[in-house]
Amino acid sequence: MGKTKHSGPIKLPGRLDPKLWVSKVPFGLGKIKPHHIRDTVKVMAENKDNLPYAFRILTQGVCDGCALGVSGLYDQTLDGPHLCTTRLNLLRLNTMPAIKQEILHADIDELRRMDSTQLRKLGRLPYPLIRRHGDRRFSRITWDEALDMIAGKIRQIDPKQLAFYLTARGITNESYYAAAKAARYLGTNNIDNASRICHSPSKTALKRSVGIGASSCNYKDWIGTDVLVFWGSVAANNQPVSTKYMYAAKRRGTKIIVINPYREPAMDGYWVPSIPESALFGTKIADDFYQVNIGGDIAFMHGVMKHWFEMERAQPGSAVDHAFVQGHVNGYDSLRSHIEQQSWAQLERSSGLTQARMSEFARLLAGAKSAVFVWSMGLTQHRFGTDNISQVANLALLRGFLGREHCGLMPIRGHSGVQGSGEMGADPFSLPGGEFKGDDIPRIEKAWGFPLPKWQGDIVGVTLENALLPYDHERKLKLFYTSGGNFLETMPEPEFVRSCLESVDIRVHQDIVLNTSTLVDARETVLVLPAMTRYEQPGGGTSTSTERMVYFSPEIDGPRMPEARPEWQIYGDLAARVYPKRKELVTFKDAYALREEMAVAAPNYEGVQHLRKKGDVFQWGGAWLCEDGSCPTPDGRGNLIAVELPELRKPEGHFYVTTRRGKQFNSMIYSVTDPFNAADRFDVLLCREDAAKLNIAQGDAVVAYNKYGTFHGRAKLVDIASGNLELYWPEGNVLLPKGIYEPHAGIPEYNAAVILEKAETYFALKDKRYVEKRIDELETEVIG
């Protein structure tokens, strides 16, 4: 933990800087870009029936979008108001009225004709619902009937056949904590959260490299650092307010580097709506793009380190901070030996970049006095995601970019609640304030007053697969309780996931709206429970930002769903009904009592019990974790991790595919057109060189396929590294393999090898032998 405290927001410069302008044409007229004013007017129109409440949410609540931690319209990084279209798009979830009864209780096939966007727009869930197997429609049920039914089922089954999952949809730390406690009270360790499918490798890698499970630095450290690197992260799209920080960094002379297969337009230039200069003329963000192959990041980082070690042989101290390494780092000699054995030809082939380009980046970092490395799912959503992140940590440790101002490692979160999920124990490998092992188990047993189940819980992907086990298997999933989430649209092989959901006896969907997974049958019963939003929660709630700021979001006066309940309260009520004789161990008088216990169970959260009003905030761990190079590892030192190089060989006509986000928040899609590149949701992004080889022109109908599925779309020719394709998520999930999990953190594999052909070629030659032959070629020629 650090001793230095965050120093608070800073001011933006007042004078203009035309060198950073994208165009002298005002407002980017004629360019493909987001239309912030138009989108804001549209949101106002959508909320016209509840504008006063919408205004109070924006000005009093903590953002329920990304994890930048904007409280009201302000944050701890920059003076002035901050507002983005992501937050505005989410606003309607909080202000819309209840679903009309005639729609809510319509025939199930009528509801199934709608996609999740259409279902979301129907309105809020007004009261508990039930649909038994064979029923054609949802029926109303009381809270007591619903919770007693769930409790009865829990008493009948083995705790290993029970599982909980919590998404990051505006969920507060209080709800994560209450769910984690209720699950263990009920005897199960099968509890997981949304970070499993986004940033779980970040926590795992950072723990083994430097002993921390969160960002080591702050957003303020971006502003004035020599080099700011975005690795597999399109922050301008996924965390739009961060563009304001990037603007401030550029004004301080920071070089911004983007490492990504696709030259993302949003990171090339952006019109920041809350900065007049940028809103008028745009801001050039990235100084350079390194268009690495999908899955080629480790090779690229090894190339950087290989060049550093070559520089060191020629001139010791020219690339490595030896004082930092000698004082604070383990494994230098073994890492150097491992890297030096690799050939440049191998590194070039895997990374897709030349030795000269890797050396160029290596020299940039070697000449920098400070750097911040920011990454997201472009690095984590791989079967080697933990190894990806450990190599980023290697770069920081070798240069001493850790534990001081303008330096650090930042896994930037895309959801306002997800950082706190593991820290509150809603995770099969975590407990509040620690891990599910060692001294943390007796510590939590003492705090909670009951023994914990000692068996290892499953990650959510395995939990879903367990639904297909024989009925008498001890881990056969029989009751699945989800708070938010839609696995049909977040997991690989959606039809397989559907079969898993249908094989559960009872599924409970605790949510604020319907989605497509809510409508899937169950063996016995589907229950739908209406939850409150964070702004409705009595006593308020807290959330933890990417930079470890714990913000208090107060209860905000406004309309309510009469039967919606606070999520933390539902978990306690359910657990008390299962084992009523000990209910005082798992229920809380109010949110204040809950936070009092959180402060005890999770020592980093000491102070959360004092958060009571708008604007209350504290940062756990201080401004910089690992301050002065001292890491919370057993020996106080960071660890350089040597990993093997993932090899991918792509014959002509074969590609590696990954997914990207458009105008959406998680799987909630707000537009069929991407405002940054005008792509449709079913466009296949590929480079012109590859398209020419396959005789594919802009807009041609194409088919991408492999043994997992087939994707029909249209060619969108863009600036992307050759041999790589990008599809939109979740539409592209049909091509992704099920059951492949990263061995350290359990994140699913979100990349796959595919064949791409013109649709006319595919359909003209399509027969069983042709497709099977091409897929067989793909399987034998692509080596993982």
From TrEMBL:
UniProt name for this protein: FdhF/YdeP family oxidoreductase
Pfam families from the UniProt entry: Molybdopterin (PF00384), Molydop_binding (PF01568)
Domain Molybdopterin dinucleotide-binding: 656-752
Alphabetized UniProt keyword annotations: Iron, Iron-sulfur, Metal-binding
InterPro entries linked: Asp_de-COase-like_dom_sf (IPR009010), MoPterin_dinucl-bd_dom (IPR006657), Mopterin_OxRdtase (IPR006656), Mopterin_OxRdtse_a_bac (IPR010046), Prok_molybdopt-oxidoreductase (IPR050123)
Positions of the Molybdopterin oxidoreductase domain: 124-576
Organism the protein comes from: Paenibacillus solisilvae
The organism's taxonomic lineage, starting at the top: Bacteria, Bacillati, Bacillota, Bacilli, Bacillales
Superkingdom of the organism of origin: Bacteria
